[in-house]
Amino acid sequence: MTAHFYAPDGDAFVPTELAASPWERGKQNGVALGGLLTHLIEQAPAPATMSTARLTIDILSATDLAPTIGRTRIVREGRRIQMVEAELLIARRVVARATALRVRKADTPVIAVPGDYPPPETVPASDFMGDKAFGGSMETRLIQGGLRVPGPGALWVKFGHEHVRGVALSPLVRTAILGDFGGGLGSELDGETWTYANLDIAVHLVREPVGEWLLIDARTASAGQGVARSDMILADRDGPFAQAHQTLFVAPRE
After folding, report:
1. pTM of the entire structure?
2. Which of 242, 123, 134, 237 is nearest to 179 (CA)?
3. Residue 57 forms beta bridges with which residues?
């Protein structure tokens, strides 16, 4: 069976061990929540041919590793612009929320975004998160930095899992998952001394990614006041397709 984060069960999604948080035992991780919210958003029909221009994900509280209910609604409806909201609930309490801004597709001028990254075939395979991460289904090629190496980092990733069992990963779900990598890849903090869990993910896209291999180029900024920001460039073989950000909650490790 293909590795997956959730198994559908009626109106609920039952998290597997892949959804477990590295920060707090018995809780769900940001990759799991963000991917599930994005999956739900994609189930909402669009009134015209549209692309997602902005995706924001807010983690409202520590989320129990328990059956999770999802619901969606249209916040703004239109043939040129549509806004979709999704929520996750456990025991009737909203634990995470996402909003997607969809924009109609049309022929407009191309404004290229520069990006010069070596293709994944030229970069040695790496063990970025360990061989058990994502059920062993993820391939990574590290260009710069590392998970516990202070400083900016750049990484090629190829996902091989399903987020919801039986549903193939879409380009937008893979984008949301990749946007959760920034805090760890580009951290400037000593993970033995500090925790830096993300509170949100915000992605601004000019297009959807193409192909299996995706790249994240991440770095962290902080003024030393208990909060940090992860800034990311997301790219594929054709170049950058999005910028993403995370708000990081910085605290001494207990």
Report:
1. 0.94
2. 242
3. 98, 201
Residue 116 CA to residue 57 CA, distance in Å, equals 28
**Residues 6 or more apart whose Cβ sits within 8 Å of residue 149:** none
Q: Cα separation of 142 and 212, whole Å?
A: 16
Dihedrals phi, psi of 192, to nearest 5 degrees: -75, -20
Q: Dihedral through CA 8, CA 201, CA 101, CA 169, nearest 10?
A: -40
> Distances from the Cα of 1 to the Cαs of 161, 196, 237, in angstroms?
10, 33, 29
First to last CA, the chain: 37
Instruction: Give per-residue pLDDT as tens, 92-139.
Output: 999 999 999 999 999 999 998 888 899 999 999 998 887 778 889 999
C-beta separation of 247 from 59 below 8 A:
no
Tokens 């069992």 map to which residue?
A: 165
DSSP conformational letter for 79: S
